Amino acid sequence: MRSLRTVSVVGCHAEGEVGDVIVGGVLDAPGCSSMYEKMQYFWTKKDSLRKLLLNEPRGRSSMNTNLVLPPCDPRADAGFLIMESDEYAPMSGSNTICTATVLLETGMIPMQEPVTQFNLDTAAGLVGITAECEAGKCKSVAFDNVPSFVFALDKQIHVPGLGVVSVDIAWGGMMFALVDAGACNLTIENSQGPQLIELGERIKRAVQAQYTPVHPENPAIRGVSNFGWTHPLQDNGADGKAAVNTVVVSPGRFDRSPCGTGTCARMAVLHARGQLQVGETFRHKSIIGTEFVNHIRGTTKVGEYDAILPTVKGRGWITGFKEIVLDPTDPFPEGFRVGDQWHV
Ligand SMILES: O=C(O)[C@H]1NCC[C@@H]1O
């Protein structure tokens, strides 16, 4: 067998969402002073790597791959970049949990039981990790995400073929448009999958055409890229507050996890509406019934915006160890997408 390149990958999922982790075979981005610059380097100069790994036949529509790199922030123990099907994400919750789990369980970051704490550098900023560890297993990963905030509540968006829809727009490490599923006569369940996907993508495109949020600290981060369907918040007393959601990840498939960045965007919206206070437990559930357990640590400001400091906790599991290769005669060096599985 011949190979143009070999990439070492540890397979992983967090609460159902695949977040494989590249641990070897890819060199660092040269001359960058931030993870955001490294992200831009890979996106503009090395994007064939993302396509090779995420498109078929090596990938599938519902997966992500993370690239571990040296950090730029001296406070961080490692850096990583997040590759998704249609973009590099500045930050991602499920991918942070996968990356932290792999770093600890492969020994790239020394595991200390019962708790290991370290920092990861991301394109959105520094993220603090607190991992519960026992007998060599990383049992849970809590991450202190970047400050999250609301751009607009109840933004009235005209959606072709549907009419006016009320949309909340918030940053949680990615830009989200959030819509109450009930307001569109939908329920978050697999039997309504096709409608949730089609309408979610349609509303997202309408938002993109009518409103462009810009991150005040990095104006290059602009525009909504993710759409989330929400169910109303439930108050379960001593067990905390809870809600079901599903995020439609581009180009049109469900996040299998409760979506960490979407969870932070939702907590920012709930806090802005007075429905979730600092310190209260918020259990966010996915379409497959998995859960992130979350809270707001405090509040701050980002530019002119009132922001929350969110913490998200979930679990990751290693699924395998793979050597990805590219034979020089393979006719699909950047893979391909097919209309049965991909919204092409
Ligand atoms: O947990 C999250 O934030 C994400 N999961 C896949 C898509 C989002 O990046």
From TrEMBL:
Annotated Pfam families:
Pro_racemase
- Tell me the InterPro entries matching this sequence: Pro_racemase_fam (IPR008794)
Molecular-function GO term, any one: 4-hydroxyproline epimerase activity
Q: Which domain of life is it from?
A: Eukaryota
Active site: residue positions: S92, C259
Similarity remark: Belongs to the proline racemase family.
Which PANTHER family does this one have?
Answer: BIFUNCTIONAL TRANS-3-HYDROXY-L-PROLINE DEHYDRATASE_2-EPIMERASE, TRANS-3-HYDROXY-L-PROLINE DEHYDRATASE
Q: Protein name, please?
A: Proline racemase
Tell me the organism. Capronia epimyces CBS 606.96
